[in-house]
Amino acid sequence: MPVRTLIAALALSTALVSAGTNPQQGVDAQTIVTAADHMNHQPPVLKPADVTVADATITDWVPLAGGRDLEIFFLIDDAANYDFGAKLQELRRFVTSQPAPVPIGVAFIREGALDIVEEPTRDHQSAALALRAPSGSIVANPWCALSDLIARWPKRTARREIVIVTAGIDDSATAEDAIRDAERAGVIVYALYNPASNYLAKDWSKVDSGLVNLASLSYETGGEAYFIGHTPANSLEPFLADITEHLAHQYLVRFRFSPATRGTFQTVFITSGNPDWELMKPEKIWVPK
Questions:
Q1: Distances (CA, A) of 6 to 9, 40, 157, 193
Q2: Strand ranges (E), the chain
Q3: Distance CA 120, CA 72 (A)
Q4: Pairing relation of β-strands 70-77 and 159-166?
Q5: 54, 67, 72, 134: which is closest to 99 by C-alpha?
Q6: What are the domain boundaries of the chain?
Q7: Taking the model in full, what pTM does it have?
């Protein structure tokens, strides 16, 4: 079950700010807005007139269908190795089902360190084969590896989206730095919870903290976190289908607004004229100096 149905009625997507230099003219920004429908799975087709950006004027509106302007990275935590056999095949089917123009990359987290094994490629068979089941490793901070991936991922498309599989457990860190790095870079993160093989012996408070980190990471960067409590899901397929639905209903929205402060993050409010519609948007965007 999507975590967003538990914590909010909104799902959010990526933000990227480009500079405006004259304070009187405001700042030009852009973001990905996703139309979502978690109840009936029939997202509306949005038009510019359907959306309002608070204290801003929409200057451009581009539907992003068929994998347009999209790159995806899979980031698999080697510590998240509980019962992964069938789930690996589900991930591979997801990769090979993506539209042909979409480059897909694959990376792993080994004891907190990033290992990129496949740079984004349109050879989806190659990307699918690069995926493997988590090998089992010491549970360590996954957030530094996530930030490292974001820093090393060149921006070539309007949409950069990460699917991370992890337990999200770390005794010494939260996801806050990774959230800020993703928001600043305009990267969306979808988090799939899968625990370590010995998760039943873990301190449940640490598992809870990990789930909170996953929820915060996805909610604030514009993705979705998927888990059913401490217990691992039997299948990732329903979650991957939900991600596919989100990717197929996204829009690039450019707007001009007047931020209160430059050189900082600022919350942007995006709403629709229909209270029954769910809009996915970023929690915050970076305003350049």
A1: 8, 16, 31, 15
A2: 15-17, 27-36, 51-53, 56-64, 70-77, 104-110, 113-121, 159-166, 187-193, 225-226, 250-257, 264-267, 270-272, 278-280, 284-287
A3: 7
A4: parallel
A5: 67
A6: 4-66+247-287, 70-236
A7: 0.88
**Gap between the Cα atoms of 108 and 105, Å rounded:** 11
Query: Quick one: pLDDT band at residue 262, thresholds 50, 70, 90?
Result: confident
Are 184 and 161 in contact by the 8 Å Cβ rule? The answer is: no
Termini Cα distance of the chain: 40
Structure tokens at 10: 């909104």
- Strands 27-36, 250-257: pairing is antiparallel
40 SS3 class: coil
Give the tens place of pLDDT for each residue, 67-89.
999 999 999 999 999 889 899 99
State how far Cα 254 lies from the chain centre: 20
| Model confidence pLDDT, tens digit, residues 19-57 | 334 445 688 999 999 999 988 999 999 999 999 999 899
b vs e for 129-149, b when ≥16 Cβ sit within 10 Å of the residue's Cβ?
Answer: ebbebbeebebbbbbbbbbbb
Rounded Cα distance, 37 and 43, in Å:
5
21 or 116, which is more confident?
116
Q: Of 276, 221, 236, nearest to 87 (Cα)? A: 236
CATH 3.40.640.10 fits 70-236, yes or no: no
Q: Please list, in sequence order, all residues whose beta carbon lies within 8 angstroms of the beta carbon of residue 173, skipping any fewer than 6 positions away.
A: 141, 143, 144
Choose among 250, 228, 98: nearest CA to 163. 98
